[in-house]
Structure formats: C-alpha cells, structure tokens
Specification:
Protein name: Arginine biosynthesis bifunctional protein ArgJ
Shape: globular
Number of strands: 16
Number of helices: 11
Structural class: alpha+beta
Strand content: 25-35%
GO molecular function: L-glutamate N-acetyltransferase activity; L-glutamate N-acetyltransferase activity, acting on acetyl-L-ornithine as donor
Radius of gyration: 22 Å
Catalytic activity: L-glutamate + acetyl-CoA = N-acetyl-L-glutamate + CoA + H(+); N(2)-acetyl-L-ornithine + L-glutamate = N-acetyl-L-glutamate + L-ornithine
CATH topology of the largest domain: L-amino peptidase D-ALA esterase/amidase
Strand order of the largest sheet: 1-7-8-9-10-4
Distance between the termini: 46 Å
Number of domains: 2
Function: Catalyzes two activities which are involved in the cyclic version of arginine biosynthesis: the synthesis of N-acetylglutamate from glutamate and acetyl-CoA as the acetyl donor, and of ornithine by transacetylation between N(2)-acetylornithine and glutamate.
CATH class of the largest domain: Alpha Beta
Pathway: Amino-acid biosynthesis; L-arginine biosynthesis; L-ornithine and N-acetyl-L-glutamate from L-glutamate and N(2)-acetyl-L-ornithine (cyclic): step 1/1; Amino-acid biosynthesis; L-arginine biosynthesis; N(2)-acetyl-L-ornithine from L-glutamate: step 1/4
Length: 407
C-alpha cells in the first residue's frame, strides 16, 4: 500500500467540481460535485440518530436499491434536516436537475447536505448550482481539492486522503474527502465522508468492507458527544481499474479493506483534530484489555470526557480525570493494575503505575501535552486486545463558534 496525494478524484474515472451557489454563505464556494464516468457499485453507512435529514433518507434508499449511482451533489450551509416533505421534495428536484445536466438517471444521484438544522434549502439556487457544477466538472487532484473545500462549514481545513494498492499486478486506487468539525460523535456507522475507488468489487464486498471499517474509524472519534442528523459515509466503486472482481473472504478483499482502513483512519483523525475551537488532536489507546469492545468503550469514554479535554487544552497532566472517565465507562477493569502514559513529538512519560502516581516531571508533562498531537495510552494489563479513539481538546473557542452558529 502506498499513500498518495489527492482525494475523491485520485481514482481513475472520477471528476469533481465546486461552485458558489449562495446557499447560505457569501463569497465562498458552497456546493460540490463528485461524478464518475461510469456507474458505480455503492455502499453507505448513516446516522443512527432517530432524527434523520432528508438527504440521509434519500441516500439510504439509493444505496439499498439495485441502482448504480454516478453522481453525488453536496451543499454546505444548510443541513436539510427537520424539513418534512419539503426537504424530501428538494432532494428529488436537485437529483432530477443533476440527472438532466449530466445526462443520467435521477435515481443515480446521491445527495449530501451539512449546516444549520431546520432551514429549508433554496431549491432554485441549488438547481442553478447543479448546472454550474456540471459545466465545471473535470478530472485532476486540484478539482478534488476544490470540492473538499466547498463542503466545509466550521472546518478550518479541507480533509483528503488517498492510497494505491497492487492486486495481481493491477493498480487500484482509493481516495476520499470528508468534512466535520462540530456535532461530531458518529454513531452509525454534521460529518460527511465520500470515498471513491476504481476497484472492480462486488456490491456485497463493498458494503461489508465499509460497514466493518466504520466501527474502527469514524465511530471511534468524538468532538462534542453530539451525533448529527446528517452523518453519512458513501463509498463508490466504478470498476475502472480492471482488476479481477474482489469478493468477500478472499486475500484481495483483505488487502482492499486494509487500504480502505488507511483512508478512513486518516480522514477520521483529520475530523477529530479539526474540532471546533480545538488546538490539539487527542488520541487515546487502551491496551491489555480482555476484549476489543472493552478497549473501545474505555478509550471512547476518555475522549468524550470534557474534563480530560480541558486538561489537554491547559497542557495539564491531570491523569485522575482519565482514570475517572474510564471508571464510569460502564465496563469493568482493575484500576489497581492500570498504567498511564502520555506521548507526543516531545517524548513519552509514564504518569501512573498500578493505579498510583509516579514521581514524574510536571514540566516535561506540560511540554508533551503542548504539542499539536497528543497520545494517551492506558494499559489495563488483563488481556491482549486494544483499541484507539480520537478526539480533541476543549477550548473556549468551541463556545464562541456554537453560541451564535445559527444566528
């Protein structure tokens, strides 16, 4: 596997575009298009929030059908959530217009929306935007990057990733883009991820690969504990690489899954590290667990702890907050056996051994915790399983952004 530059247009046969449609923002692009030169097999995972946005309902229906999608239209600024039948009609109108502009079927158009909940999308602006996108679409990494920028809301940077793998002498590429900064506590699988590949792969294998990997990547991040109404991950495969079809249970399937995991992990970490107001990516690994689920639950409890997050913001090695968060996670472990470490580019420090503080340097701890990426490792020493979760620190910037986000 080789990491390469690019995003949704890295794979063969995928084009992209961006446009300023004036949906909510002024002076910036706010619509994006992902287009495949050939119809695709599609897989998807979606929010488990009972309140589901209209595009989530639309996409779920498309993915679960026998339709082979070819187009994704995405807007930022307005989520098209809690918009009733009008919201669903908007999806239909936009899909119909995209099909007309791109000479495809309405049923082959997927929709993505992100932004303020409860506002109706300006349908005519969306339709005009679709024609702008259709006119501008093109191949190339720059076009993918522009699309990644267009779907941002409170994000401070675009999020892209791409890799290549070799399957029996054939190069297969997987690339993707994502957005997400606040209302991030994916539980599905306002984060969106769009992954593209030129692999020849069965629909069953594609969905299996995505569903299992989401549990290890997007479902292991949290910024603020809020599961969005719009969480969507779409994976499109246009079969243009020319490899032998990948089937579940094969060696090629495992190689494909590993590559997909690299793309999804990279995007998930970029979302976590770009949390609203954040100054640091927080990575928490729990090792020595009896089961994978025990490790996952403990790790995610720590990254969701506001007190731990504020300690990271203050570069304060307040390890008691970490053990406390593990203690209320809802799974058993032995605090008296637990070791805690902190790591970053500034070094590593062991803070706790067998549940008790060591005589460590507070100055060194502060230096380690002052870096842009900070890792916490908890070794509970009762087994061989481990899991990693990602979050960010919590600063006053989060309040500043969200206190008047709608108004």
């Amino acid at each position: 596997m080789k990491k390469i530059k690019g995003g949704v247009t890295a794979a063969k046969g995928f084009e992209a575009a961006s446009a300023a449609a004036g949906i909510k923002y002024q002076g910036r692009t706010d619509m994006a298009l992902v287009y495949s030169q050939k119809p695709c097999e599609a897989a998807g995972t979606f929010t488990t929030n009972v309140v589901k946005a209209a595009p989530v309902k639309w996409d779920k229906k498309v993915v679960e059908s026998n339709v082979k999608p070819q187009v994704v239209v995405i807007n930022s600024g307005i989520a098209n959530a809690c918009t009733g039948e009008t919201g669903m009609e908007c999806c239909k109108e936009v899909a119909k217009e995209a099909a007309k502009a791109l000479e495809t079927e309405m049923e082959s158009v997927l929709i993505g929306s992100t932004g303020v909940i409860g506002m109706q999308l300006p349908v005519e602006k969306m339709k005009d935007g679709v024609h702008l996108l259709a006119k501008e679409k093109a191949e190339g990494l720059e076009m993918g990057n522009l699309a990644a920028k267009a779907i941002m809301t409170t994000d401070t940077k675009e999020k892209e990733a791409a890799v290549t793998i070799e399957l029996d002498g054939t190069t297969v590429t997987i690339g993707g883009m994502a957005k997400g900064s606040g209302m991030i506590h994916p539980n599905m699988c306002t984060m969106l991820a769009f992954i593209t590949t030129d692999a020849v792969i069965s629909k069953e294998a594609l969905q299996a690969a995505l569903s299992s990997d989401v549990e290890e990547t997007y479902n292991m991040i949290s910024v603020d504990g809020d599961t969005s109404t719009n969480d969507t991950v779409l994976l499109l495969a246009n079969q243009m690489a020319g490899n032998k079809e990948i089937q579940k249970g094969t060696k090629e399937f495992e190689i494909f899954k590993e590559a997909l995991h690299e793309v999804n992990t990279t995007l998930a970490k970029k979302i976590a590290g770009d949390g609203e107001g954040a100054t640091a990516l927080l990575e928490v690994t729990v090792q020595g667990a009896e089961t994978k689920q025990q490790a996952k639950t403990l790790a995610k409890s720590v990254i969701c702890s506001n007190l731990t997050k504020t300690a990271i913001a203050g570069h304060d090695a307040n390890w008691g907050r970490i053990l406390c968060a593990m203690g209320y996670a809802g799974v058993e472990f032995e605090p008296e056996k637990t070791d805690l470490f902190i790591q970053s580019s500034a070094g590593e420090l062991k803070l706790v051994e067998n549940g008790m503080a060591l005589n460590y340097s507070e100055e060194k701890a502060t230096e380690i915790l002052s870096q842009a990426e900070v890792c916490v490792v908890a070794d509970i020493k009762t087994g061989t399983e481990k899991a990693t979760a990602w979050g960010c620190d919590l600063t006053h910037g989060y309040i500043d952004i969200n206190a008047d986000y709608r108004s």
